[in-house]
Amino acid sequence: MINFILKKVDKLIKIHKTRNPFEIAESMNITVKYDDLGSLKGFYFYQSRFRYIVINENIDDRLKPIICAHELGHDRLHQSFAKSGAIKEFSFFDMSAKPEREANLFMAELLVTDDDILNLTKLGYNHDFIARELGVPIEVVDFKGQILRKKGFKIKDFGVAEGDFLKGY
Questions:
Q1: What domains can you pick out in the chain, each with its CATH number?
Q2: Which CA distances in Å does 83 have to 53, 77, 133?
Q3: Which of 4, 42, 100, 121 lies in disulfide reach of 67, CB 3.0 to 4.6 Å?
């Protein structure tokens, strides 16, 4: 499945000439809305041929691209689920659910380039430093590390990705 996700992300980047999930969503006619969602970070839904990504307006602005990219992953990978009802992340980034793991991998591949991680790890930096340098939670770095290992790179397993890592944000 990782290879399928990588191909989907690569195709999106080539078509839209950006890694910005908001620009991609707009180009694909996916409406991005903001609303007070309480503890819910965001969700994706499909209704009457219209697609929506809804992001909690009260979360830190640095997390909004991460959530948008994750929900964009649901659009590209799980649209058939969404046609039957909204895909909601009650525990955002719940690694126990296969669709959530796939959307997480999609998000990491879209937002973080291979070189972003490889160049910093070659210099000996740890996952905490890399995450701060890239401006993402360390779990995003871990998801990207999983992808890089699948691609054959010798990169340390950071082992920090937890299902509920955004609860603290």
A1: 1-111 (1.10.10.2910), 113-160 (no CATH)
A2: 13, 12, 38
A3: 42
Structure token pair of residue 93: 């980034």
Asked if residue 147 lies in contact with residue 6, where contact means CB atoms within 8 angstroms, the answer is yes
Residue 45 has pLDDT above 90, yes or no: no
| Structure token pair of residue 31 | 């409406």
The pair of three-digit structure tokens given for residue 132, joined into one six-digit string: 């701060």
Determine whether 87 is exposed, middle or buried from the number of CB atoms within 10 Å of its CB (0-12, 13-18, 19+). buried
pTM score, two decimals?
Answer: 0.88
DSSP-assigned letters across all residues of 58-124: TS-GGGHHHHHHHHHHHHHH-HHHHHTS-EE-TTTT-TTSHHHHHHHHHHHHHHS-HHHHHHHHHTT
As a whole number, mean pLDDT of residues 149-158 equals: 86
Q: What is the pLDDT of residue 84?
A: 59
Contact 25, 72 (CB under 8 A): yes
Distance CA 162, CA 25 (A): 27
> What is the tens place of the pLDDT at every residue in 1-16?
899 999 999 999 999 9
> Is residue 160 classed as helix, strand or coil in its secondary structure?
coil
In angstroms, the CA 19 to CA 139 distance is 19
Backbone phi, psi, residue 2, to 5°: -60, -40
Q: For residue 41, give the 3-state DSSP assignment.
A: coil
